[in-house]
Amino acid sequence: MVVFSTDYQRLVNSYAREEISRDGIEWTIANFFKLMIVVGSENFKGNVRNWVFKLLETRPGVELIHKITLCREWFFVREGHCHFDYGERSVFIDLRVNRERFGFKNWEKILFEVPFEIILAHELIHLLDALLNLEKALSDFQTSPDLLSRFFPNKEELKAITGLDSVYDPLLPLVEVKDETGKKGIYSFTAVSENSFLAAYGLPLRTKYDDAATDEEKETERRLKQIHVGSLLTIIVENCKHRRQKAVLAH
Ligand SMILES: [Zn+2]
Q: For residue 16, how far is its CA from the centre of ligand 1 (angstroms)?
């Protein structure tokens, strides 16, 4: 797991909570739906539409949807193993995907389910990167990150998930990142990333690419919860007994 600096967390959180400007939102919505061609059942089409509206309730969602719309290019959304296909310019979403993850929130490890709209946002970020600079997106997709290659398979995934880009941009804030050995790297912070969506929802940030909760982890979590609930119940029962005894004594 990458340990993100407080600088990084502060940037992600403050961006996610920035006030949303709704100027031109009707134009964005009307044109975005003309460019996005959803292929699949009526149920799938309805779901995708609802996810887009949910994304538009968030600060990073408004920016992401607006930027894609400005590119004025068609793209597809299809059902299938979650990924972005550069050749077909298609976003694939799997309705049976494992969305359970572990993460730290207020220092507490929690098991949570990633909302579908955030999975869609992740793939739409790959789409936007491809629309803005296909050559860079493809090259990033084929290159390991300089520092965090144990956690992210390539630069494009690192950027889509964390917003960290190794290309220096004078207009963007710089963030220092450390790996587990203490080795440091400097990255440009691009605001729209999966983590800014997770921050907007108050969910733990994603710290690695492969982070779906395994069955073994889920089982451990369930057992721990049962023990926790079990011991809580014992305490409540003991307290009641104690109170009853006191009540008996008082009368
Ligand atoms: Zn991805």
A: 20
What ranges do the domains of the chain cover? 6-213, 217-251
Q: Which two tokens stand for residue 100?
A: 């359970």
Whether pTM > 0.90 for this model: the answer is no
What is the pLDDT tens value at each position of the chain, 251 positions in all?
566 778 899 999 999 999 998 989 999 999 999 999 999 999 999 999 999 999 999 999 999 999 999 999 999 999 999 999 999 999 999 999 989 998 888 888 889 999 999 999 999 999 999 999 999 999 999 999 988 888 899 999 999 999 999 898 899 999 988 877 888 888 999 999 999 999 999 999 998 898 777 777 777 777 766 655 555 554 445 555 555 555 444 44
Give me ligand 1 centre to Cα 242, in Å. 56
Cα separation, 239 vs 209, whole angstroms: 46
CA of 72 relative to ligand 1 center, distance in Å? 22
With beta carbons less than 8 A apart as the criterion, state whether 73 and 35 touch: yes
